[in-house]
Write a structure and sequence with these properties.
This protein is an all-alpha fold. Helix content is about 85%, strand content about 0%. The longest helix is centred in the N-terminal third of the chain and has 34 residues. It is a multi-pass membrane protein.
């Protein structure tokens, strides 16, 4: 379990460097790629929540309690986004240096919580951890591109922006370490953490990512977005076989 968890934490950290790769891509083409990546993320997040996390919770406990915890997770993510400057939008018009630093603070907390939730999922089972890790990585990709742009617009050099993003991404290791260190104390709360993860996935996909897709009403692109959402869901469905194998 530790090996798999460490692998996903490392990949998540490396994703923070993806912004540098996009520098040479023309803005219009980049936006097209990001739209499809966001659509894929929507499918993966919804699929992860409804095909894996929620069924796992329903299997372990009462549906009424599960629903309350998931609603609590949705509300928690709403509060975090409102008050901890947590931004998933992959296009940002903010250009002030102070916002760049606030964005880093929000990302640090975001990555810390990702680490906690990822570790909690692996504590339930390795397949559930794998599903959670894939969903987190997919939604991190467009976010990191946006974060890199925010830092550049705020006056950061490319090198400084890369280093800042990489260092902030390492807070996921701290979050995972805290979850593992206090595993004995939080063992009874692991189902709640998994429910919070499910609520977070639903919130991010429904309120942050889907509105981004609606900004482009062109029929051809809308059809492509739908296809990529379905691909994301199908990928999560395919991972059900991994769970059943265990």
């Amino acid at each position: 379990m530790i090996l798999e968890l460490t692998f996903f934490l490392i990949v998540t950290a490396l994703v923070s460097l993806v912004g540098a790769i996009t520098i040479s891509i023309k803005r219009e083409k980049l936006n097209n790629y990001l739209d499809l990546l966001v659509a894929l993320s929507v499918g993966a997040l919804f699929g992860g929540a409804f095909l894996h996390l929620i069924p796992e919770l329903a299997h372990e406990g009462h549906l009424g309690e599960v629903a309350i915890y998931i609603l609590g997770g949705i509300m928690l993510f709403f509060v975090l986004e409102k008050f901890v400057f947590w931004h998933h939008c992959h296009k940002s018009e903010h250009t002030h240096l102070c916002f760049s630093y606030m964005n880093l603070v929000g990302d640090g907390f975001h990555n810390f919580l990702d680490g906690v939730l990822l570790a909690a999922a692996f504590l339930v089972s390795i397949p559930l951890g794998v599903v959670t890790g894939i969903a987190i990585i997919l939604h991190e990709l467009p976010q990191e591109v946006g974060d890199f742009g925010v830092l550049l617009a705020g006056g950061f050099s490319r090198k400084k922006a890369l280093v800042a993003n990489l260092l902030i991404s390492l807070t996921a290791f701290i979050g995972a370490g805290v979850a593992l260190l206090f595993n004995t104390f939080i063992e009874g709360a692991i189902p709640i953490l998994v429910a919070i993860t499910a609520g977070g996935f639903i919130y991010i996909a429904g309120t942050d990512l889907i509105p981004e897709l609606h900004k482009n009403p062109e029929m051809k692109k809308s059809i492509l977005q739908l296809i990529f959402i379905i691909i994301g869901i199908a990928a999560m469905f395919a991972l059900l076989f991994l769970e059943h194998a265990h």
